[in-house]
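dude i think i finally got it to work??
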Amino acid sequence: MEHKRSLISNGNPMETIVGFSRAVRVGNFIAVGGTAPVDGNGKTVGVGDVFLQTKQCFEIIKAALEQAGSGLQDIVRTRVILTDIDNWKPAIEARKLYCLDARPVDTIMAVSRFVNPEWLVEIEVDAVVAD
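look at this
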């Protein structure tokens, strides 16, 4: 069986330069790539505040899911990627605002840094749209 592939963009100019999409939907599966805490102009939101940065990531994710014909209720997996693992509690407090009803599986991990050193967190999600 062949599934339609839809590429979801949020207008980031790096999408065409690097060759990535904000999200990809294949059939009823949606993958949302590493989402950074930036505004529409590419400026970091909540510099120094992991809670605000996590919320911004989820606002971008929410918009991408809606553009793909889905929503927060369809999230089945989240990956919270931090530059400081000690920031996990405020990140998870923000995550709960978006994921408490769906209760997806979750991975929390730390990396040494992101492309922009102002970013304290990036979020990835997978979603499955019910038939």
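The CA atoms of residues 46 and 108 lie 20 Å apart.
im so relieved honestly
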